[in-house]
Amino acid sequence: MDPLLEAVAAAARAGGAVLESMRASFGTVRTKSTRVDLVTDADLEAGVAACRAIAERFADARFLVEEPEVYARAGVARGALLDGDVWVIDPLDGTTSFVHGYPCYSTSVAFVRNGQPLAGAVYNAATGELVTACSGVGAWLDGNPIKVSTVDALEQALLITGFPYDRGRPFDVQIRVFERVARIAHGIRRDGSAAVDCCHVAAGRADGFWEFELKPWDLAAGVVALRESGAVVTGTDGRPWDASTPGIVAAGPNLHQALLEAVLSAQG
To answer: Are the CB atoms for 130 and 13 separated by under 8 Å?
Structure first.
């Protein structure tokens, strides 16, 4: 196995194992940017486990982790997207779901070089599923190759989205887009883990995904899976996606343009 792919898979599993073990007792719950942006002790412990799994393999690794307390706890070096190489980790993507016992939360790990993710793994700790992907090699769900759907019309599409923590203008924009797309699409799902959402599209379980106001750790691993499964991935403005892009529109090549146009038309 490719060393990068092996490392992201091991790290995602390590973080996911912590989430599984802490499911019934996740410690203190506190808020971050807003009252709905939650963090628990499980976020931190999963981050430590994921970072250490990589540091064991790459002693000079630098990290970008959602929870900043993790760097000192894990004894690893803090990096940045501008670094040539950086490991981007979301220890618990879907904290709100995790706190409520809703079965959709994950550990997401990506290796990013010059702003583009080259290897990624997303472990859905609620279901035990692991999606892995490596640039130029492929994408897999529990070791089986995956591909995006061939759906070519929004009227036949099952889509996925999420809602921003900022309940001001970003939320209002998303509501307008949601209303526009919901009137057309077969259906829309919202589970609370952008990393898992990416993987559902990569595996052909859903046909497209859009969301605003995301962070690099929300998307980096999932974007590798999307690209390697044949999806088209852009920002919500239609520009090419990189790890600094704050939103996403992703779908199979037959559907992406229609979804993007719907998202753009409702933004105003």
So the answer is: yes
